[in-house]
Design goal:
Elements lengths: L18 E6 L12 E6 L3 E6 L8 E7 L6 E12 L6 E7 L11 H14 L4
Antiparallel strand pairs: 1-2, 1-4, 2-3, 3-6, 4-5, 5-6
């Protein structure tokens, strides 16, 4: 990374008391969601969360966000990184959403609209 250059173009923000569940995609993986886990932060481009298991970089997962007083939101995402979290018990995991559109393996455009609404509501200091 070039000094002083930030790859992210979207503001990261926290949503108090938000959580998520995820499930892997694939023939050998269960089709159910894992237990609800802590959401660290989110943006219009991706999110990070606490995870109890190792997931290979590049794997596609489905995340289901639970935001207080709002309808849940499901998104297709690709794992970008994992590292030990500050609590020492879980792995901090970062994912980037798959593209938004109407095609195969895309997130619905309405999901991007919801993320924009959350961004407006929770991002401070614009």
């Amino acid at each position: 990374m070039v000094q002083g250059f930030e790859k992210r173009t979207c503001h990261r923000f926290e949503i108090p008391n938000a959580s998520l569940m995820y499930k892997r995609i694939g023939f050998f993986f269960p089709k159910k969601y894992e237990n609800s886990i802590r959401l660290y932060n989110i943006s219009k481009g991706g999110l990070s969360f606490a995870c109890d298991e190792e997931i290979k970089k590049g794997k596609t997962i489905i995340v289901k966000l639970f935001i207080p007083n709002e309808e849940s939101l499901e998104l297709l995402a690709k794992v970008c990184w994992q590292r030990d979290s500050s609590d020492g018990y879980s792995l901090a995991t970062g994912v980037a959403y798959l593209p938004f559109g109407k095609g195969y393996n895309m997130n619905p455009p309405e999901s991007l609209d919801r993320l924009r609404e959350l961004d407006k509501k929770y991002v401070k200091n614009r």
